Amino acid sequence: MLNTRSCGVLLHISSLPSEHGIGTLGKEAYKFVDFLKKAGHEYWQILPVGPTGYGDSPYQSYSAYAGNPLLIDLDLLIKEGLVSEIDPDIAVMDKKKGFYDYSQLFSLKNIVLQKAYRKFIGLDDPEKLAKFRKFCRKNAFWLDDYAMFMALKYHFKQQMWTSWDDDIRLRKPEAMKLYSEKLSEMIDYWKFVQYIFFRQYRSLKKYANKNGVKIYGDMPIYVSMDSADIWAQPELFMLDSDNRPTKVAGCPPDAFAPTGQLWGNPLYDWEAMEKDGFKWWISRVKYSAKLFDLTRIDHFRGFESFYAIPAEDETAENGEWLKGPSMKLFNAINKALGEVPLVAEDLGFLTEDVRNMLKESGYPGMNVLEFAFGEDKADSSYLPHNYVKNSVVYIGTHDNQTAKGWLSSVTPKVRRFVRRYTGAAIGESDVWALIRTAYSSVSMLAVIQMQDFLELGDKARMNIPSTIGGGNWAWRMEKGVCTDKLAKRMKKLAKLYYRIPKAEETADNTEEKQD
Questions:
Q1: Active site residue: 345, 346, 370, 430, which one?
Q2: The one catalytic residue among 34, 298, 313, 505
Q3: Which is nearest to 447 in space by CA: 346, 368, 345, 364?
Q4: What is the CATH number of the domain that holds 69?
Q5: How far apart are CA 426 and CA 188, in angstroms?
Q6: At residue 423, does pLDDT exceed 70?
Q7: Which of 2, 180, 245, 438 has the most CB atoms within 10 Å of its CB?
Q8: Which helix (H) or strand (E) holds 248?
């Protein structure tokens, strides 16, 4: 449970300003931590940090454990002497202001990181090499399969693993031995990339925690079909004897999607997972708890029951609801790990069984203000007067419109309702009235997208669900917008509604008395 009132900002690392195309774990990330500290905000919520695959989505990753190479900061590598300061490969030009190009970045950054790897391996520094080998041994339980998966993926010209030669696709022992030897250098390279990522990430997290900022991460419920996880452990998923999906994930048809949503992720074989005590999930949650101070589990309702669509179907219309593990899974996690700080993404259509699972788990659920004003009904669960304390409130998440974009799209009647309900003051924008309403609610944690603090329209939207391309996942914040003036305004609001860390509040009160 969340025990103290607090607030935070949702901004993915990739959306930070950058001179190299995409936000990274470098100086702008440290500056953002400083900004959050000035603003009296305790949480920095980020999206999944795994290597992005299909559609550039962080929810379709090549691994449930690995870090995204694109987030590695090149300037930090320059400081280490692993990359030349005048290396022309580092000069990334943006094609469009405020956005980044994944295809350009993947090929370019891979070239730079390979140069860094060759420089690192050639170092006459036994201590540095020993640290790298120690990282490899410590993370072998996922790193060995992931590194080999990536080496094979490039060997087979980045084809999905289901298109590889049958012997290695099915992990035949003789093929595994053959490719391990043949691709040994590339396997070592992909391990090095993960070593660099996690070294930079942990340094940033350590700095954030030291400055009173907690990292609030995100765990997708499903893993991508094109991932090391499914290639390495196909027996834990709904696959046939040829390791191809029999059923895939999605959502049934509704008013927003007449043919439903076909996500395409393979589904878990929960019976197989239960037989070994849910070891795969326990390992994943344990790892996440080390990475983040608080973790949001995506699509929480899928643990109670999940929508299963025949793998050969082209729409989600013919799916069926199947029962998930429900509290069996979370009881096993709690028994193995103790109480892990988790938030349940419980949005969408919820049955009484899902509500009971959430209540029994004790995890905070989520409230989204953009869902509250569709109709002027007092019983809407998303209106703040119906919230419970053990919850997290948002105006919208990465899957929603920005506050400004949403306000411009609703009817005049809904807009008037928003102004009446929020009590928007003269001269106060409707966006800031919504922010204030979220902060004044009883939800113990309030998290606002950075786009909303900046009052940006839908051009700054992070993602439109069930679509590919069109700027999804590619928005980047402009440099210099995190001003002292904005931090002061945010801190004033956090303090007014008792969401400021106690140490900050004490310091502020001391300053006020001195004044």
A1: 345
A2: 298
A3: 368
A4: 3.20.20.80
A5: 61
A6: yes
A7: 438
A8: strand 247-251
